[in-house]
Amino acid sequence: MSGALQVSQKQKLQVQHHQHQHQEHQQQQQYHYESSCYLSSKSSVSTQAFATYKTSSHRLKTSVKTEKGQEVVKLSPLPKRAKRTYLAMDTDKEVIGYVVPVFRANHDTVRGLLEAQDEETIEEGIHYVAMRNLFVREAKEAMQVKVEKKTRSKHVRESAERLEMGRVMEEWSEFRKKMNPDSLTHPPEFIVKPRGQTVWEGRSVKLHCTVAGWPKPRITWYKNNVLIDAKAHPEKYTTESNYNMHSLEIKNCDFFDTAQYYASALNVKGESSSVATIVVKRFQEGEEAGPLDPKPHGFSPEHGVTFETTIIDKFEVAFGREGETLSLGCTVIVYPTVKKYQPEIQWYRDSVALKPSKWVHTHWSGNRATLTLIHLNKEDEGMYTLRVNTKSGFDAYSAYVFVKDADVEVEGVPVAPLDVRCHDANKDYVVVTWKQPAVEGSSSILGYYIDRCEVGTHHWAQCNDTPVKYARFPVTGLVEGRSYVFRVRALNKAGVSRPSRVSEAVVAMDPADRARLRAGPSAPFTGMIKFTEEDPTVGVVPGEPTDVVVTEATKSYVVLAWKPPVQRGHEGVMYFIEKCMSGTETWQRVNTGMPVKSPRFALFDLAEGKSYNFRVRCCNSAGVGEPSEPTGETVVGDKLDLPSAPGSPVVTRNSSTSVVVSWAASKDVKHLAGYYIECSEVGTNVWVPCNNKPVKTTRFVCHGLSRGANYVFKVKAVNAAGYSQDSANSDAVVVQPAIAIPSKPTGVTLLEAVKDYMVLGWNEPGDNGGADVRGYFVDYRTVKGSVFGKWHEMNHQAVTSCTYKAENLKENVLYQFQVRAMNMAGVSTASLPSSSLECKEWTITVPGAPVGLHVLEVRDTSVVVLWEPPVFDGRSPVNGYYLDLKEASTGDEGWKGVHEKVNTKKYIKVTSLKPGTSYVFRVRAQNLAGVGKPSANLGPILAQTRPGTKEIIVDVDDNGVISMIFECSEMNEGSEFVWSKNYQAITDSSRLTFVNEKGRSRAIFNSPSLEDLGTFSCVVTNTDGISSSYTLTEEGLKRLLDLSHEHKFPVIPFKNDMAMELLEKGCVRFWCQVEKFTPALQVEYVFNDAIITQGKKYTMNFDKSNGIIEMFMDSLEVTDEGTFTFNLVDGKAKGTTSLVLIGDEFRELQKKSEFERAEWVRKQGPHFVEYLDFAVTQECDVLLKCKIGNIKKETEITWSKDSIEIAEDDEDAAKIERTDGDLTFNIGKISKTDAGIYEVFLQDERGKDKSIFNLTDAGYQAVMNELFRVIANSSTEIQVTSTEHGIILYSDVKYYTDELRVGWLFKDAKIAASERVKAGVTGEQLWLKINEPTEKDKGKYTMDIFDGKDGVKRVFELTGKAWEEAFEEFQRLKAAAIAERNRARVVGGLPDVVAIQEGKSLNLTGNVWGEPTPEVSWMKNDKELVSDDRYKLKFEAGKFASITIAAVTTADSGKYALIVKNKYGTEAGVFTVSVYNPDDEEAKEEKKG
Q: Long-range contact list for 813-817, CB < 8 A, 24+ apart?
């Protein structure tokens, strides 16, 4: 062993030395390298094992012969300080397996091998080179012979050690060769194979394997020979590849995951695969469950509980229409509640998991799961499933969603196709498929148009000019690298349908590139250096394509496919397609203009029925290659036949609004897309689709039918070629619920116990299966400790009540009981066993639990709970009950009493419930000893009114008969109406008579009286608890009796009683209106008990179209005082209405009649339609106006003021205007001089009329008040302006008069006039001046303008920014005014021009002003003068500036200026001095002369 230890130590040192060199090399290269090696060895368990170069010790192997003669390889013992290897060993140091190392590094998942390797590369890893050199050094050092003197025994021992070392080195050499790419590449080899496993449903499983090989193999996983795409299904599969260890994780296993899983390893040297079988077991045996069926919940060790899931408030079968938004939801209760733990919510459509998108929104609020489908399309139709995953398992609920077609824009056009998909996408080619719609329209579909749109644009281009019949079309001419979406439209004789929903976007690119993109980014750099040999095929004409085949052939097109040539170089190749008609030798190139890039091509415009050969040529920059082999003759025509008609459908009942339709599948159908089912109500011949998305099964549940209606059904199949013929019509079926066995009873409890018998009770099944429960069967078994006996039947004949007396029991023995319910369909499954009950006589004093709890009349906010008394009363009789309730989602702490006082009845109506909430109920009985234990729980009961629920209606017919009517539209076979009073069966038939018709029951009161007071209820048997009640109170009975009397002795109802109105000429009209009558109605007209008839004085009329009765009188005379009456007779109905005209009322009416007659006489000539009145315009002009009528040209119109006629030549005549029937007198701006009495006279041969307006006193004041109103409302909002003196607030009005009262307020207090604050008017501007404003003047200012009543107020807040801006402007203007007043200036004294004779003395003085006193300077020709002997400059008293020139010369001529300047400004007084010589002037005159 010493030799082994020496070798191990030497190797350890060498490896450490190698590691040190490797680390230095890493620092120089600044890269991280991955290193791994494999050790091939033999053991009793595995033929291959694994080790890394990091292992610090190596063990020697020895061969040992076993008793059976087998050679077993053993390893030397592990050194004490040796690091752990990856071989699993037992206590005897025997290799028993392989330990998968736990690696901490995260590497990208190994991508699937989706394309063949076209290029061979020679790869050499730097770390392999280092390992090879190390191995050479180890071998040389190990083989060196040291010469020294040794004993024979030592020599023999060392020789044996050298032989063993040589064998080890040989193995190492083989291993090095295997792992060294410079020496040898080799195919993949599984070091550790995946191991088959058996798991429970709902759990996850992981398969592992380790693969050797060079170049490094690529690993792909298969399920039953089908490639697993983990990227496409991340929720189901996860693949990993770390350090050559590969794994596949299958999540949430279900029954369909039971399969054979293959791991395939592939490199350029070959392929190897290994298989492992996964078996998924269920928790319990029984009926095969689907992948979404709920499973039993198991214990969760992570949380220490077993989660139980309940799904309530479930969504039902839903119906939507294209374009609408539909929401589905369920309330999920997970018990117990664990903090910060939420279940996983997953939605499925047709067993396919839904992912959130712009069309699908999901929401989980913590207790309610909601799925919202945005803008429904027919693709959204299907079976929707909510799956709730917890740590203990999962539950699921499903319901179907139907999507109806949107209304078509043009009558008769087909509806939109659906399910548009893209297949076989290449660089410039893609195949688009779709499914035909359920409704073809008024005529058969002639074909389809395919549209495409480039992603990012909104322009749709039609791909085909001629509609295609097939539901499949190859689209060519795409631009490589661009993304497209597609849609399809159907065409028939009536027009084109709406477009379908757009397809998913597809990129026009090579499939290999797409696979690389889908696989994701490549692995990070790990230090591998690649050397690629120069491709010898660059610049060479490509070879010929292979495997050219016709993949599709229809009447419209033929699709070719082929494989690229092997010899093609690095540059891409393109293709030319050639065709040849059979019988000729002429090949014609199809795509002469542009070669195609994809190995796919669609040929159009071929002659139908002709045979063609096709071939393909490759081309690149070097030229066009040789043609491929021809495809062989292909006949242009449809290869896919229409499906045959399905078998005749068989219809069976399902629910009140649905049926199950089954049929035989179409025979020999290829590429079946599915089936469409249609229904028609018998007698209508109108066929309606039951599904708008084809189904592939031969069984379908058709929902949304009318209960009780009679339907027939037919089915048609569809594939890409089109629709099949319709199947034969089914037999007619009436839509009614199917009868099924009832659900199991619940709540088996002990009601009473004696020495040898026990009384049991239970609750009725929640679902009776559509038929009344006929009875129950009870089973029992004995319990001894934890040992349970076999079940035995107790009763061979069914018991009809929910209680049973179990006799012949043994005292002090424990029993368990279970109950089954029976109806006409069969016997239900057994209830849950009761708790272990001891047969022992009760000695308790309080009563037992009430039994038979059930509910009736379930509504949104109320429910009626009924029960039966307990079997065991206790020591005294039961004297009342207490009802408790709780919400189903709460625990036991949620119980609360419904009422405080004891209830003596055996029922109670619970109100104030929350709509849509589920409740649980229980009842406790009470006697003199106390309150007993509660009954079994009843519920959960959902507080929700059933759709179509009707209530009991109380009716009184024409004969006065009082009855109660209850209707039910959901009657089933055997359903009956059962009436009760106070929820007890009615036994006294003398009070009520029952008449039952189809779906309608009528309970007739024989002789209504106080004996009939109470609550009447009606229950429809053999239904889902359809019931209603009506409480007849004393007040209600009295009202019904009054109504009955009215019906027995009817009175004609009046819509309007007799009334009177005055008409033109003073005529009087008496009238009334009858609300309800027959054509036989007769009217009698009476005055003071005397019948009057139509004649000269009276005129009668009865308009039967509206029921108005009229009587007209020309005038009222003294003898007409009295009572007027209309007596009506209509069959046995009578009616009377009267009007009394006597006394003052009659005399007042008579005066009005005479006045109306006088008015009529007046209006026969010229008259005033509207008398003289006034108006004030918006411009504040006062107008007197009136309207006249019945005017002729000859009619005289005269105006006067104060009885003085206004003549045509008067000044006021210009103010008179006449427009048609309007007369106006425009006073203008009124003043007191305009006051007076104005009159207008109308006169001609037919008569005369006049109108007067008094514009004095009250009349004048009324006009002024209106004027004040117009002025006040014309005022603008208060504005602010600033001056040098202060701030002015002002408002403009249209007009101002001194009589207008205007007041100003500051902070709601009236402003007193002062020198500092003044109010006034300038023109049409009302103002308030604030001189020298201060901070005290900030605040709210109000201007109150009198408007004839209260006043109009304008408010201005002189604060904040408004104050700051106004005050700042005031200060600026004030400063500017001061500067203007005090600035320096020349105020006078200087002439503009001075002419002076040479030699004279010039003295000019300018008057100067300025505060402070200005500085003075003089300028001559823009140059400053200085006081000297020639120019004497003086400035005296700060006001007078003078300049003196003693003897001027011509040189003194020029432009002079007096400049004054102070801090407020500068000013110049400019003058011109002209010096002349008299002699020169005379000489000039002489020359002129």
A: 813/782, 813/838, 813/839, 814/782, 814/783, 814/784, 814/838, 814/839, 815/758, 815/780, 815/781, 815/782, 815/783, 815/839, 816/780, 816/781, 816/783, 816/788, 817/748, 817/760, 817/778, 817/779, 817/780
Say whether pTM exceeds 0.70: no
| Backbone angles phi and psi of 140, in degrees to 5 | -65, -45
Q: What is the 3-state secondary structure (H, E, C) of 1104-1122?
A: CCCCEEEEEECCCCHHHCE
Residue with the bigger pLDDT between 63 and 1055: it is 1055
Contact 208, 70 (CB under 8 A): no
Q: Which of 295, 365, 301, 287 has its CA nearest to residue 333?
A: 365
Whole-angstrom Cα distance, residue 1239 to residue 1250? 7
User: Could you read off the pLDDT of 1390-1402 as tens digits, one per residue?
Assistant: 888 888 888 888 8
At 618, the amino acid letter reads C
Omega of the bond prior to 1412 within 30 degrees of 0, cis?
Answer: yes
Locate all alpha helices (DSSP H) within 198-274, ordered by sequence: none
Determine the Cα–Cα distance for residues 461 and 484; give it in Å rounded to an integer: 11
Q: What is the DSSP track for 845-866?
A: SS----EEEEEES--SS-EEEE
Measured in degrees and rounded to the nearest 5, phi and psi for residue 842 equal: -75, 145
Residue 405 has pLDDT above 70, yes or no: yes
More confident residue, 293 or 93: 293
The CA-based dihedral angle spanning residues 913, 915, 919, 925, taken in that order and rounded to the nearest 10 degrees: 30
For residue 541, what pLDDT is reported?
83
How far apart, in whole angstroms, are the C-alpha atoms of residue 1258 and residue 1230? 15
Omega of the bond prior to 847 within 30 degrees of 0, cis? no
pLDDT digits (tens, 9 = 90+) for 701-742: 999 998 888 999 999 999 988 899 999 999 999 888 888 888
- Which pLDDT does position 975 carry in this prediction? 80
- Asked if the model's pLDDT at residue 858 lies above 60, the reply is yes
Instruction: Give residue 862's identity as a one-letter amino acid code.
Output: S
What would the pLDDT profile of 491-548 be if each residue is shown by its tens digit? 999 999 999 999 999 998 877 676 666 554 443 433 343 444 444 545 678 888 888 8
Q: Report in angstroms the alpha-carbon separations of 458 from 359, 452, 505, 1098.
A: 19, 10, 14, 81
What local confidence, expressed as pLDDT, does residue 1131 receive? 81
* Residue (of 1124, 1130, 1125) closest to 1104 by Cα position: 1130
CB atoms under 10 Å from CB of 750, counted, come to 22
Angle separating helix axes 2-29 and 126-143, nearest 10 degrees:
150
Cα separation, 1041 vs 1006, in Å, equals: 13
C-alpha 775/C-alpha 768 separation (Å) is 11
Contact between 321 and 403 (Cβ < 8 Å): yes
The CA distance from 930 to 923, in Å, is 14
Angle at the Cα of 253 (from 249 to 257), degrees rounded to 5? 90
Give the single-character DSSP code of 695: B
Tokens of residue 772, six digits: 């009344």
Peptide bond into 215 cis (omega under 30): yes
Residue 176 — left, alpha, or beta (φ > 0 → left; ψ -120 to 50 → alpha)?
A: alpha
Q: Count how many Cα atoms sit within 13 Å of the Cα of residue 540 in the half-sphere of its side chain.
A: 13
DSSP string, 1010-1053: GGG-EEEEEEETTSSS-EEEEEE-HHHHHHHHHHHHHHHS-BPP
Rounded to whole angstroms, the Cα distance separating 311 from 296 reads 14
Average the pLDDT over each of 339-353, 657-671, 1037-1051, 1290-1304 and give the range with the smallest value: 1037-1051
Tokens of 1379: 């500067």
Instruction: Tell me how far apart the alpha carbons of residues 23 and 15 are, in angstroms, rounded to a whole number.
Output: 12
Question: Helices (DSSP H) in 562-675: which residue ranges?
Answer: none
In the chain, the percentage of residues whose pLDDT exceeds 70 is 85
The answer to whether the beta carbons of residues 87 and 99 sit under 8 Å apart is yes
